[in-house]
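## retry 2 of 3
previous attempt timed out at serialization; input unchanged, resubmitting
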Amino acid sequence: MKTTKSLVICAGLLAAATVAALWAVPVEPAEPDRVGFPADYQAKYEVIRVSNRPKAVSLGTIYANERAASVKEMGQLPYPEGSVIVMEWAEPLKDSAGVLLVDANGLWRKGKVVRIDVMRRERGYGEAYGGKRVGEWEFASYKTDGSYFQPPAKPAACAACHQEAGAERDFVYRGRFPPGEGN
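## retry succeeded, writing output
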């Protein structure tokens, strides 16, 4: 009886510690971050696409480092090793009546950046995603200060989604290219 009570208490303490660890701030990755937050992406990377995302009411700006930006047509795929693609998500600006402000190209004007998703392609990357693997890409999602929006262990969901982009597009939805089916 005493052993059973001790086991129940230990299990309860373990569960409480697990919950506390899950809610701890800041978020610490369960595994190393091999993607890396590119703090200087706005200055050093090329903007390769900007698009309104009506379902999410956000403005997406895609940046690419020099290696990724070198791919200008589908025939050059796959992206070279060392490619980094950044998807910056921003709230669109609104006027005093709450109407979205639009630029001369019909794009929403960029307001506060709220999230930065990054994908990096290197030899051997993606193995940890198992059946959700998309080539040699790994993913991470950051807040604007470089802390994690989602730690490296979570972006297997990003990989699973990018499977839909297809191997013929090197698992990249848009980049410079027109959208594929379903995106």
